Every structure is written in C-alpha cells, then in structure tokens.
C-alpha cells in the first residue's frame, strides 16, 4: 500500500467516525437554534467537536502533515496539509436536515492529493485520491456526459461575500441557457454531485478552501472540469469555483465570465 492509499484509508475511517459524532448532535427537524456568525453562516456545537476530533486523530496518525480547519484555522503547518470542514451544509444540519457532510481533503501546494466526503444522514461516502479514481460508496463515479445546457441541471451557490445582484444575474443567465436551477445548501455536496453526475454543474462566486478541499480531488478523479481554485487566491482568501460536466464546461464558464471578479481563478482552457 502506497503513502496516499494509507492516508485515504485513514481519512475514510476518520471521516466516518466524525460523521457518527456529528449525528449525536443532530437536532430534531425544525427552526435552527444554532449561532449565527453572519448572514446564513451557522455555527453549531457539533462543528467544534468534530473539528477537534479530526485535528487530534490526524495529528496522532500523521504528525508530519499540516492541519487547517474551518473553525480553528491552521493548527499545524506542513508541506502536506489536511483541510477540514467539520460540517458543510450547517444550515441544513442546524434544522435537522440530511444534506450535510464532513469534508476532509489533503493538498500539497496546488495539487489536491485526496478527498473524502461523508454524509452520514444520507449513508454516503465519497472518496478519491490522485491517480486512483473516485467512488461513491465504493462504486466508481464519473461526471455526466451531458452535452447541452437545455438538458443540464446546475446549482448556483450563494455567498454573502458577493452582491446579491451578481448571484441573481448568474441564476438568470443559467436559466436563459435552458438549464434547471438547483440550490442545496452545501457547496461540498454540490461539488460531489457534479462528480457523480447527479448535477451537471456547480458555480459559486466566492467559496473557501475548506468547502472545496475534498471536492477538488473527487472532481478531478471523476473526470469533471474544475476551475484552478488552488492557483489563485482560493487557498488564502477564497475564490470562485466552477465545476461542470466536461462537455458543457465551456458554456458554463461563458455564463459566469461577465461576473468574474478580477482575482477569480478563471481560465478559458
């Protein structure tokens, strides 16, 4: 077993355990009672507990690796860095919903090495490593073969860091192209849905590293197009993310282009 296989096996086990821990905190369905860090930016007791668990366990298993969490920031520096979102889709979690996940990615420089997403309430585990393909519940997944926008389903993620008018304009352009709009409340799971072919595209004007760290590896190994998030400002301050079925990626990038901020990691390739 090579180095990345060892880490991937460990990451799947840890993310599963972290998901089980999060399930212990899952509230009954209803109005959210969690803390608000900002508009629709939720924080629950589970976020801190899950991140602390993963930081401790990864530190014991791979002390030479760095660690960065959404809540605690960079705990340890390292050439290789584990990046964790303890609960992505916290707004869903806080209401007792099912569409949320534990996101665990390993990156080195601008290269995603592996990614694991565990959605315990849905009984789903996404996993991928560089050169090893991507799976959902151990079955190989590939991005959709969709060739035209009128057959496509696109999710547009909302970010409070960008103007609402920009979000509304992107949604309008997606609809004008004939695609069906979706919004699921979890960027990480939206990216995973593109990788598995459940969605044909995911766009968000500003998203943070911990939201995409796992998804980047999963998308790449599933053959999806994904914008070069790690080449721009993404690792430090967040950036735009565009993920798509390969054969509609050019059209989706053109839909996005009029709204691209100057620092967006956007490419015509």
CATH topology of the largest domain: Fructose-1,6-Bisphosphatase, Chain A, domain 1
Given as residue ranges, the uncertain stretches (5+ residues, pLDDT < 50) are 38-42, 265-269
Residues in β-strands, percent? 25-35%
Count of beta strands: 15
CATH class (first level) name of the largest domain: Alpha Beta
Largest sheet report: 8 strands, mixed
Q: Which percent range fits the helix content?
A: 25-40%
Helix/strand order, N-terminal first: HEEHEEEHEEEEEEHEHEHEHEH
The strand line-up of the biggest sheet is: 4-3-5-6-7-8-9-10
Mean model confidence by pLDDT: 89
Relevant CATH superfamily of the largest domain: Fructose-1,6-Bisphosphatase, subunit A, domain 1
- Structural class of the helices, strands and pairings? alpha+beta
Keywords summarizing the entry:
269 residues; alpha+beta; Fructose-1,6-Bisphosphatase, Chain A, domain 1; D-Maltodextrin-Binding Protein, domain 2; 2 domains; eight-stranded mixed β-sheet; five-stranded mixed β-sheet; globular; disordered C terminus
Write a structural description:
The chain is of the alpha+beta class and 269 residues long. The chain folds into two domains: 138 residues, Fructose-1,6-Bisphosphatase, subunit A, domain 1 (Fructose-1,6-Bisphosphatase, Chain A, domain 1), CATH 3.30.540.10; 111 residues, D-Maltodextrin-Binding Protein, domain 2, CATH 3.40.190. Helix content is 34%, strand content 28%. Strands 4-3-5-6-7-8-9-10 form an eight-stranded mixed beta sheet, with helices on both faces. A hairpin with a 3-residue loop joins strand 3 and strand 4. The C terminus is likely disordered.
């Amino acid at each position: 077993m090579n180095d990345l296989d060892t880490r991937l096996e460990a990451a799947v086990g840890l993310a599963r355990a972290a998901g089980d821990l999060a399930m212990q905190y899952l509230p009954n369905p209803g109005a959210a009672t969690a803390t608000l860090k900002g508009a629709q930016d939720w924080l629950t007791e589970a976020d801190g507990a899950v991140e602390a668990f993963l930081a401790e366990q990864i530190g014991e298993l791979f002390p030479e690796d760095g660690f960065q969490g959404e809540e605690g920031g960079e705990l340890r520096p390292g050439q290789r860095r584990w990046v964790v979102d303890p609960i992505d889709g916290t707004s869903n979690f806080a209401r007792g919903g099912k569409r949320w996940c534990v996101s665990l990615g390993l990156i080195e420089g601008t290269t995603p090495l592996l990614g694991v997403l565990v959605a315990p309430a849905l009984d789903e585990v996404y996993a991928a490593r560089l050169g090893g393909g991507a799976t959902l519940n151990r079955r190989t997944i590939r991005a959709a073969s969709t060739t035209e926008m009128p057959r496509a389903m696109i999710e547009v993620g909302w970010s409070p860091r960008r103007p609402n008018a920009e979000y509304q304009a992107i949604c309008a352009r997606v609809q004008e192209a004939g695609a069906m709009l979706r919004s699921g409340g979890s960027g990480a799971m939206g990216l995973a849905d593109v990788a598995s072919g459940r969605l044909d595209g995911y766009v968000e004007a500003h998203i943070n590293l911990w939201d995409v760290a796992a998804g980047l590896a999963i998308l790449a190994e599933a053959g999806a197009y994904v914008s070069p998030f790690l080449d721009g400002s993404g690792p430090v301050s967040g950036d735009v993310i565009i993920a798509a079925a390969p054969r509609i990626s050019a059209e989706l990038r053109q839909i996005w282009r009029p709204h691209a901020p100057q620092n967006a990691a956007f490419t015509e390739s």
